[in-house]
């Protein structure tokens, strides 16, 4: 059961396993003719005798499971950047192809890992994953074996009021390398159709929902498994200092599983870690603060000093998203608190695999938009809107509390999980110093 659930969750493994041509299990399934039965009984008796005399030999044989060739290719090449995903696939594949010895043919079928719901179907027809690529209505179907060049996904929640800035943003992302998905939270979908790229974007509309609500509902890891990176961005982002292809190149080379472009200093900056550093260099992974409260040194190991990014322009590798998606709570739509836990999805050391790219940076305009309560300015609008914003802000803080509570409880309840980033014990209160 463990192996099966692993296989379902990983990339490319669902299409693998014993080759369909391997008919050994068919030979033994169904009704056996009496002659064969008799033969089997004889074999069994003979086998028992042989066992008595050749225990050693037999046990060695049994310890070496027959390897069934998984001759079907994984449907997509693994991207060079997410080696973790590759490793994951490798492990799963091994787990699946380790079929039991041929002497017990029935187990070949019993041990097959099938994704839940697909048990009634022949394995080869099952497609567990999908994508957002368009198919032409004419032409030749069934050419999916032809390798598509690898792509990433850009997903943005949008309102028609931000059309101009979103147009500039999306236009910066080359169509050959990025699939675009817009989440319309204001329902005004028609207003976008005049833009050149609008027809190649996937449009999803749901009134008054946030980026994390959309992400949880429409970016299931099995739907985005083809994309190397998922850019889940806010809409009020200026990209004059940002080149998406150079960005991909940098995060690939630096091994950043979770990243964001640095924030230009004219941005609304909430956390110093994400501000662009002036001292050249392509990437930074920590910041230093050696006086005042909340200090950060070179030996700091976690947020807010290192190992996290903010939630306005995060970029996830495929493997990191597979993890992060699972951490997003259905009902906590502002996702406050999630950022500090993202490091757990970094596929290794969060102080190495999470970083901020300085050479490709963006300007965060800080316009109050749905889903970012930090930008809310209650004084700037009508009384009713101000009340709405106040409610949003309240809710965000409440969500933060609930999320942290759930995390704590989950940690306490899961005996099989160990924290790779245990909290350092709190410093002893000064009055409690024992006097010697
Ligand atoms: C972008 O797409 C082009 C055309 O498919 C391809 O040649 C190029 O390698 C891609 N660049 C990246 C960084 O994926
Ligand atoms: C980290 O470094 C600072 C300054 O160098 C030092 O004061 C502090 O004790 C160190 N903390 C740990 C846990 O090593």
UniProtKB/TrEMBL annotation:
Protein name: Uncharacterized protein
Protein species of origin: Avena sativa
Lineage: Eukaryota, Viridiplantae, Streptophyta, Embryophyta, Tracheophyta
